[in-house]
TrEMBL record:
Its EC number is 1.1.1.203. It is an enzyme of class 1 (oxidoreductase). Pfam families: Epimerase. One of its GO terms (molecular function) is uronate dehydrogenase activity. This is Uronate dehydrogenase. InterPro entries: Epimerase_deHydtase (IPR001509), NAD(P)-bd_dom_sf (IPR036291), Rhodanese-like_dom (IPR001763). Keywords: Oxidoreductase. It comes from the Bacteria. Residues 2-42 form the Rhodanese domain. It comes from Vreelandella titanicae. PANTHER family: NUCLEOSIDE-DIPHOSPHATE-SUGAR EPIMERASE (PTHR43103), PUTATIVE-RELATED (PTHR43103:SF6).
């Protein structure tokens, strides 16, 4: 497929674009800075500028596309990961403005230009736990896509708004628009760097609902969504199979989630960030485990 990928120079985007490249897709990156991933070309674009977005969505992906003499090919899909990645990187109002306006521009261009699929990055933060002022527990466990999304911070607010915007564009156009509520992205080198501390102090993972997503498995999830048509508007939790700490579910519940309702029985080390919908609808099957990575 011919894929337009925004934010491909970022932490998650670098691994996702590499994965898509390895699956045979042609990927053009829209970002403020060039990607250092081999085989990924970058068109430097300000996504808050609607004119630049519309132009980029109709641009050649490389000089080779001039050769047939048949005009600019249409992109098969847009994967929209670009965003201010969290609070405290920019003033709150600027985080909100950039994240919501860039997403609006991408969805507007895609639907008006006839691009049949958009996959966009939403966030675990929409559930209101990650950047809460003080401790905020989930309403129930495991946290699935039906859990309320009422966050307090500008970043998570922007992601909730983006989901509403995406749903409206899908209703208008009928194309497939899938939102990925991505948990804490872990790069391969971060297992040895960070996870020993999580074993020693599991409370470090409380704000991430004790979950994580391997950056390579995130790439797989994007590819699963590219290969799955006809779902209309959907949101999916994206995480790995297991908790990110060395405790069992029962031990985590006893220490951190006393009194929180449990919706169903879970496996001994199963993630509290439910990924059953992604498994069922698009065939997501995470392959990487922090346990295996630390044993290597």
């Amino acid at each position: 497929m011919r894929i337009l990928f925004t934010g491909g120079s970022g932490k998650a985007g670098r691994h996702a674009t590499a994965y898509l490249r390895d699956q045979g897709h042609r990927v053009t990156n829209l970002d403020w800075v060039a990607s250092d991933v081999p085989g990924i070309t970058t068109l430097k674009t300000d996504l808050t500028d609607a004119g630049q977005v519309f132009n980029a969505c109709q641009a050649y992906a490389g000089f080779d596309e001039l050769e047939p003499g048949t005009g600019v090919p249409r992109y098969d899909a847009i994967v929209h990961f670009a965003a201010i990645p969290a609070i405290l990187h920019r003033p709150d109002n600027e985080t909100y403005r950039i994240n919501t306006l860039s997403t609006y521009n991408i969805l507007d261009a895609a639907t008006k230009l006839g691009i049949p699929k958009v996959i966009f990055a939403s966030s675990e933060t929409t559930y209101g736990v990650c950047f809460a002022d003080g401790e905020q527990k989930p309403d129930y466990l495991p946290v699935d896509e039906e859990h309320p999304t009422v966050p307090q911070d500008s970043y998570a607010m922007s992601k909730v708004v983006n989901e509403v915007t995406a749903r409206s564009f899908q209703a208008r156009s009928g194309i497939d628009i899938y939102g990925l509520r991505i948990n804490n992205v872990i790069e391969p080198h971060e297992y040895r760097q960070d996870f020993p501390a999580y074993m020693g102090d599991p409370a470090l993972r409380r704000r991430n609902i004790f979950a994580y997503i391997d950056a390579r498995d995130l790439g797989q999830m994007v590819d699963c969504c590219l290969k799955t048509d006809g779902l209309g508007y959907q949101v999916f939790n994206v995480a790995n199979n297991e908790l990110s700490v060395g405790l069992t579910n029962a031990q985590v519940i006893e220490r951190f989630y006393s009194g929180v309702p449990i919706k169903r029985e879970m496996g001994e080390f199963e993630t509290f960030y439910c990924i059953e919908k992604a498994r069922r609808l698009v065939g997501f099957a995470p392959r990487h485990s922090w346990r295996e990575e630390l044993e290597q």
